[in-house]
Amino acid sequence: MKKIHIVGIVVIAVAIGVIITSLKNTTSYADFNEAIANPDKEYHIVGKLDKEQPLVYDPKINADEFIFTLIDNKGLHKRVVLHKNKPQDFERSEQIVIIGKMQGEEFHANDILMKCPSKYNDGKPQIQ
Amino acid sequence: MNEITYIGEHIWIGKIGNGFVVLSFVASLIALIGFYLSTKNNEYLKFARNAFYLHAISVLGIASTLFVMLFNHYYEYQYVWQHSNNDMPMHYILSCFWEGQEGSFLLWTFWNVVLGLILQRSLKNEWEAPVMAVFSLAQVFLASMIMGLYLGDYKIGSNPFLLLREHPEFANLPFVQSPNYLEKLDGRGLNPLLMNYWMTIHPPTLFLGFSATLPPFAFAVAGLWNKKHHEWQTIALPWTFFGILILGVGILMGGAWAYEALSFGGFWAWDPVENSSLVPWLILVGAGHVMIVNKNKGGSLFTTHLLSIGSFLLVLYSTFLTRSGILGAASVHAFTDLGMQGQLVLYVLTFILLCVALLIDDALIKISYIVLSVLLGYFTVIYGYKKIAFYIWTVVSIGLTIFSYKRYFPKEKDEEELYSREFWIFLGSLILLLSSLIITYFTSIPVLNKLFNINKAPLKVEDYNLWTVPFAILLLILMAAAQFLKYKKTNPNEFYKKLRLSFIISVIFGLACTIPLYFLKDYSDANRLQKWNLLSYTLLFIFGVFAVLANGEYWLRVLKGKISKSGASIAHIGFALILIGALVSTSKKQTLSKNTSAKKVSSLGEGFDDQKSLFLEVGDTLPMGPYLVTYEGKERIGIDVYFKVNYFTKGTDGKPEFAFQLQPKIQDNPRMGKAADPATKHYLNRDIYTHITAADLNITNPKDKDAYTTPKNYVGHIGDTIFASNAIIVIDSLKTNVTEKEYEKIDSLLEVTAVLKAFNANGEVFKAYPKYVIKKTMIIPQTDAIDELGLKFSFWKINPENGSVEITMSERVNNSKDFIVMEAHMFPYINILWLGCVVMAFGTLIAVIERYKKLKIKTDSIGA
Fold first, then answer.
1. For labelling alongside B751, which of A12, B523, B580, B788 has CA 20 to 30 A away?
2. Residue of chain B with shortest Cα separation from A126
């Protein structure tokens, strides 16, 4: 066997190894039901802000805690405790992705991604 | 229906622009055909060149037309309206040009034309026709991206010369009915996030970098075409290193921009957009290196082709990722979807098809493959089944590539020695390729989700960092050592002897630095993963230093410090410094703004224990890391609100000494929303980086101190709490004057009193009794106030369906002191990173010049 073949095999093995190990570690997009079923696993939950429920952010008490309610894509409402500051323009978000775990009745998120319709593509021609 | 005659529109200029658009497309198509025919018959060459010149002129024409429109604020055009406005300073007009998809495609087309013209002039012989044919094909696709034609339901390209009133989104708006709408119309303007000097220099550099991947690709394809696998590499070398230089600088500028002006909290976030420009660069670096091997000794021939071709294909793939909208929520700065997904896919697949087809020698197989591809494409358009067709095509293409390689491709006869420069460079390129493939794989998760109906989330930054470190370590070792090896064969003992000194110094120096950095404090209470990380950081550091020293030694001792030959050594030193700087500044990044008062949530697991934010009121002084911070106040300039944060150090006598002031800002843009813009204090050995995550942007007038804020509504049940800035209020109970039965009987007055208990910070209790009064059908809410706390309550609604009540509260303005919530991080030794960037760019530049000179001498000597 040539050296080049050994190198090739090592390369392929490493590639497969990296992909498999990281696939194990990566989280999936899911809904609350799945997160409730596996409370130890981290999930990305996609949903919308429940605008009927209060948003609680009191930086004076804890600047790294923000509580709101999310409606997931199946329509389930859950209280979300985000362990981070309240993001700018949170109320304007169109879609929210939260990353974290279920704990009891609450979802504890360590990160949040928001999609704002306004960011790149807003505004209509107006004549003042 | 009457046609409306609009006043003040400049229809002619759009017509000129569109004329150029069509001309540029047609001319590139003719040039493609012309250059293709020229590969068989030289007579067509002049014709093809002229077609390419015509294409070049039309591209210049499109760009100039768009500039004129932007300079003169012709808002009747959608592109001008969307990306510029009246208040914009002149130097941002350039930025508007490439803010949108259409403009950035145009920028790319423009650079391709520039490079194409230079190439065409420098190439004489048999290479001109195939290389320029590839250029023309790339231009056909790029020109089609700004066509804006509809073929049935398929939209081809998005046109920058579309009239605002004809844009599908706006065509139904009322302004279209008014003939003089232009008189009062102002543009939407540039995204304020992009209004800085980076936006004027980063995109042109990056797109020139993208363009610079085309020459190596075109040469490799021409090599396959002419069946001359070696000759093109000498000519392609300076171009490849030019690409490495420009694309590298472009990517690093993006990192610097992110670090300086965006609130990512770092310079690299493994965002898909960043990754998809990094990957072509890594591949191009690999390509450049195997080309050198090939030039000097021969060998690694297939890898050279693979990498030269791969780099450009990955640029195309990156274009597809960032511009098709497929990334969706996975990226913060992907372009919006303009409905060009199909066209972008076709662009990528056509070039893959071209390469595979050229690799096949047998005419029958070649034609069958092309026919199969076209048929598959045709049936997908007609019948769907996109995924299945794509799977089949991919399998066939990969199969044919392997088959043709085995069958037709020339191979090296003898095996490379273990201790030879070519083998180590080859290994290095392979590692670059491997890490690129893995980055591409992870970046493509949104695409894979679509292809295979799965729902994986994108990879986290920590995971990317975790597995790139071993690759970086291997690269550093190869970078340090490979130059000390000779081509063909080296005596291993001599080789190790040469490296010994730099290795010993780097181990000693490395350990002296890393032991205090990673092992004195962090190691003992780390978990297994963290321990593994700390060990790999140590290795990365030691070998980073090793690469710096070994390359320095090679340059000074072996090359005798000659500048003209130093390109590789200097560039390697730069790359190693970048890695060391990135490692130290990221792994030892320290969050200064820990909110010590907050309750700990680390029990929830990793990722939850990093408290980041600090709450700071005007006048308060809080300790933060080695500093004391105060918030002095804020100032509004235009749409920017600047927050003045003062840093003090503890002086020798224990008294705080003023150190510096930072003014992070929040941009309050009525259309784009709020965006935080960090401020950084740069020291030689560290940066202090601050940004505001929450603050009140309104500037209150001190005169209204006794005024009350606008009431805020709270919905709750008995027992719920309301947070005021100076107290916590509990809805204690509700009392009515009559029972429900009595109320129905008497039909007069119902009074519901909410008993509110307010607890202030000292634990004192105050009560308020706002009333909800119904007289017949009239509701008369009665306000009650707690004067001591400056709180007013109004009880105005009962929701019978769920028993909740709604109470509004307003606070006296001077109750709530102005505050900010901020994050502050310390990045140690980040200047090593920036130094590395400059050094690497400088080294690569020397290499480009040197390679170009050598090529010149060679071609001149052939000519003479």
1. B788
2. B185
pLDDT in tens, B168-206: 878 778 888 888 888 878 888 777 777 778 888 999 999
ipTM: 0.87
pLDDT value for A125: 59
- Alpha carbon distance, N-terminus to C-terminus of chain A: 78
Q: Do A125 and B81 touch (CB under 8 A)?
A: yes
Q: Check residue B333 and give its pLDDT.
A: 52
| CA separation for the pair B689, B680 (Å, rounded) | 4
Dihedral angle over CA of B498, B503, B509, B512, nearest 10: -150
Q: What is the pLDDT of residues B802-840, one digit of tens each?
A: 888 888 888 876 666 788 888 899 999 999 999 999 999
- What are the tens digits of pLDDT across the range A32-91? 998 898 888 888 898 889 888 888 888 877 888 899 999 988 889 999 999 888 887 788
Radius of gyration of chain A (CA): 21
The C-alpha atoms of residue B202 and residue B251 are separated, in whole angstroms, by 8
- DSSP strands (E only) in B218-309: none
Identity of the residue in B175, B437, B694 whose CB atom sits nearest the CB atom of A85: B694
Considering only CA atoms, which of B783, B765, B763 is closest in space to residue B773?
B783
pLDDT of residue B671: 66
Q: Kind of pairing, strands A43-49 and A28-30?
A: parallel
Asked if residue B536 has pLDDT above 60, the reply is: yes
β pairing state of B149-151 and B712-716: unpaired
Residue B514: closest CA among B544, B485, B486, B494: B544
Q: Is the pLDDT of residue B411 over 60?
A: yes
Give the residue from chain A lying closest to B464, CA to CA. Answer: A22
Please say if the pLDDT value at position A120 is more than 60. Answer: no
Kindly determine whether residue B437 and residue A15, on different chains, have CB atoms separated by under 8 Å: yes
* pLDDT in the model for residue B845: 95
Interface test with A, best of B433, B456, B713 (most A CBs within 10 A): B456
Contacts of B190 in chain A (CB under 8 A): none
Give the list of residues 6+ apart from residue A10 with CB closer than 8 angstroms, or none.
none
Q: Do A26 and B459 touch (CB under 8 A)?
A: yes
The percent helix, strand, coil of chain A (3-state, each to 5) is: 30, 35, 40
C-alpha distance from B669 to closest chain A C-alpha (Å): 10
Task: Count other Cβ atoms within 10 Å, centred on residue B373.
Answer: 21
Alpha-carbon torsion B788, B789, B790, B792, what sign? Answer: negative
Dihedral sign for Cα B821, B827, B830, B831, please.
positive
From residue B295, alpha-carbon distances to B248, B417, B433, B484, B590 in Å are 23, 17, 20, 18, 47
